[in-house]
From TrEMBL:
Enzyme Commission no: 2.8.1.7
Name of the featured protein: Cysteine desulfurase
NCBIfam families cross-referenced by the UniProt entry: sufS
PROSITE patterns (alphabetical): AA_TRANSFER_CLASS_5
Enzyme class: transferase
Record family assignment: Belongs to the class-V pyridoxal-phosphate-dependent aminotransferase family. Csd subfamily.
Domain of life according to the entry: Bacteria
C-alpha cells in the first residue's frame, strides 16, 4: 500500500498553483515530476563536487567519477544487466536508438529486413527509416487492431531469415498498450534477428529484467522515472556492443590517438564521447533508488487502480470516445470528445490547472490509423490521486459544455 500523501510531500511542484488552481499533473507519460531527494542530489553535485570525470587526479574529479560509476551500477542492478559496462549513458531514449541504428549501418546489407510496430513513437520509426535509406534494408510494420494491440499473427508471418532487427516499444506512449515483448523477442531470436525494446514508457511502471527477457538492447530516459531531462541509458548485450562501431568520435571514447590511426576505448566508454551529463547520470541513479524504495509492485497496483477509476468515471461522459482499450495497458488514457478538437479541450483544462497532453503524441501513424488529428491524453503516476481524477472529469464535462 502506498502512502500517497506522504509521497506527494516529496514533490514540491505538486503544491503549486496553475492559473490560480491547484496543479493537477496528468502529463506523466511526457515527463514525470522530480522528488526532493533527487533535487537534493542535483543541488549537492553543483554545490559540492562539480568536476569533469575520468580524467582528473584531483579529489573533486575522483568524487564525481565515483558517484557517476556508482549510478551506472545502480542502473545495472535495476535492469539486472550482467555487466556494468553493458549500460551506456546517453542523452535519452532518442539518442540510444540513434546510437544503435547508426551502428547497424555497418552490419546490414541491401534487402535485409527490419521490423517495427504500428504503435511506435517517431523516435522508434525515423532512425530506422534513415538506416534503411543508408543501407537499402527494407522496413516492415507489425499492424495494430482497433483496440490498439499488435497483431501477432501478422508478426509471425513477417519474420523470415531476411529479418535482421526487430524494434518495438514495451508500452505505447499514445495508448498505454503493454506489448507482448517476451513473445516478440523469442520469435525474433528464432530467425536470428536482434531485438531492441524501447522502454521509455515501461520504466515508470515496470522493472524490466533484461537477462530474463534475453533482450539484445533496451533503452530508457531518466525524465520518465523521476529523474532529470537530457540523460538516459542504452542497455546492450556485451557481444552486440562489442560488434557495433562507435557512434560519435571525441574525447573519452579512445584508447590511443595518432594522426595515422585511433583505437577505441573499451566498453562502456567507446560509446560515451565527450563530457557526459555527469550530474544527470548521478541523479538518474538517485531517481531509480527513489522509485525502488517505493517499490514497482506497489506503483503498478496503485496506478492500475487509478486507471480503472478514471476509465469508469470518464466513460459516464456522453460523446467521449477512448482510443486504445487493450487488455494489457498502463495508466494512460487517450480520448476525444465527439466533434471537438483535442487542442481546445486541453486549453480549457489548462485554465483549470489540469495538465494533459493533446496532439499526436509523436505517434502520427496511430492517429492516421484512427483517422483523427490527435487525442487528449491523461497519464497517471503513483503520486496522483482519485480526487485529481474527479477534477479532470469535471473539467472535461465543463469543456464539453463550453465547446459543444
Ligand atoms: N519512445 C517512447 C515510447 C516515448 O514515449 C518517448 C518520449 N515521449 C521516446 C521514445 C523519446 O524519449 P526522449 O524524448 O526522452 O528521447
Amino acid at each position: 500500500m502506498l502512502d500517497v500523501s506522504k509521497i506527494r510531500a516529496d514533490f514540491p511542484i505538486l503544491s503549486r498553483q496553475v492559473n490560480n488552481k491547484p496543479l493537477v499533473y496528468f502529463d506523466n507519460a511526457a515527463t514525470s515530476q522530480t522528488p526532493q531527494p533527487v533535487i537534493d542530489v542535483i543541488v549537492d553535485y553543483y554545490s559540492n563536487y562539480n568536476a569533469n570525470i575520468h580524467r582528473g587526479v584531483h579529489t573533486l574529479s575522483q568524487e564525481a567519477t565515483d558517484k557517476y560509476e556508482i549510478a551506472r551500477q545502480t542502473i545495472q542492478t535495476h535492469f539486472n544487466a550482467k555487466h556494468a559496462h553493458e549500460i551506456i549513458f546517453t542523452s535519452g531514449t532518442t539518442h540510444s536508438i540513434n546510437l544503435v541504428a547508426n551502428g547497424f549501418s555497418a552490419l546490414l546489407k541491401k534487402e535485409d529486413e527490419i521490423i517495427v510496430s504500428a504503435l511506435e513513437h517517431h523516435s522508434n520509426i525515423v532512425p530506422w527509416q534513415m538506416l534503411c535509406e543508408r543501407t537499402g534494408a527494407v522496413l516492415k510494420v507489425i499492424p495494430m487492431n482497433l483496440e490498439g494491440e499488435l497483431i501477432m499473427e501478422t508478426y509471425d508471418n513477417l519474420l523470415s531469415d531476411k529479418t535482421k532487427l526487430v524494434f518495438v516499444n514495451h508500452i505505447s506512449n499514445a495508448l498505454g498498450t503493454i506489448n507482448p515483448i517476451e513473445y516478440i523477442i523469442k520469435k525474433a531470436h528464432a530467425v536470428g534477428a536482434a531485438v531492441l525494446i524501447d522502454g521509455a514508457q515501461s520504466c515508470p511502471h515496470i522493472k524490466p529484467d533484461v537477462q530474463a527477457l534475453d533482450v539484445d538492447f533496451y533503452v530508457a530516459s531518466a525524465h520518465k522515472v523521476c529523474g532529470p531531462t537530457g540523460v538516459g541509458m542504452l542497455y546492450g548485450k556485451e557481444e552486440w556492443l562489442k560488434k557495433l562501431p562507435p557512434y560519435q568520435g571525441g574525447g573519452e571514447m579512445i584508447a590511443e590517438v595518432t594522426f595515422e590511426k585511433t583505437t577505441y576505448a573499451d566498453l562502456p566508454h567507446k560509446f560515451e564521447a565527450g563530457t557526459p551529463n555527469i550530474c544527470g547520470g548521478i541523479a538518474f541513479g538517485a531517481a531509480l533508488d527513489y522509485m525502488n524504495n517505493i517499490g514497482f509492485d506497489n506503483i503498478a497496483s496503485y496506478e492500475n487502480e487509478l486507471l480503472a477509476y478514471a476509465t469508469e468515471q470518464l466513460s459516464t461522459i456522453e460523446g467521449l470516445k477512448f482510443y486504445g482499450t487493450a487488455k494489457h495497458k498502463t495508466s494512460v488514457i487517450s480520448f476525444n470528445l465527439e466533434g471537438i478538437h483535442p487542442y481546445d479541450v486541453g486549453t480549457i483544462l489548462d485554465k483549470l490547472g489540469i495538465a494533459v497532453r493533446t496532439g499526436h503524441h509523436c505517434a502520427q501513424p496511430i492517429m492516421d490509423f484512427y483517422c483523427i488529428p490527435g487525442t487528449i491524453r491523461a497519464s497517471f503516476a503513483f503520486y496522483n490521486t482519485k480526487e485529481e481524477i474527479d477534477v479532470l472529469v469535471e473539467g472535461v464535462k465543463k469543456a464539453k459544455m463550453m465547446l459543444s
